[in-house]
Design brief:
By secondary structure, the protein is an all-alpha fold. 61% of the residues lie in helices and 0% in strands. The longest helix is centred in the middle third of the chain and has 13 residues.
Length: 62
C-alpha cells in the first residue's frame, strides 16, 4: 500500500489509493475528484478502471 506513494502524483494507482484514504472519512466530494482524476490518468488497467467507475457511480450525491 505504501509503495503506491512512490508513484508519480498523477499516476492512476496513487490517485485511487488517495481516494480510498479519503473515503474512510466519508469525504465524498474529494474522493470523487480523485477517482475522476485517476480514471483520466495513465497507469491502471481496464478492469480496475471499470471497478473505479462503479465505485464512483455508487458514491452518494453531494
Amino acid at each position: 500500500w505504501q509503495a503506491l506513494d512512490t508513484l508519480a502524483d498523477d499516476h492512476a494507482l496513487r490517485l485511487y489509493k488517495q481516494a480510498f484514504e479519503i473515503l474512510v472519512e466519508d469525504r465524498f466530494d474529494p474522493a470523487r475528484a480523485l477517482l475522476a482524476r485517476g480514471l483520466a490518468a495513465t497507469g491502471s488497467t481496464p478492469a480496475l478502471d471499470h471497478e473505479m467507475r462503479k465505485l464512483l457511480a455508487s458514491l452518494p450525491a453531494s
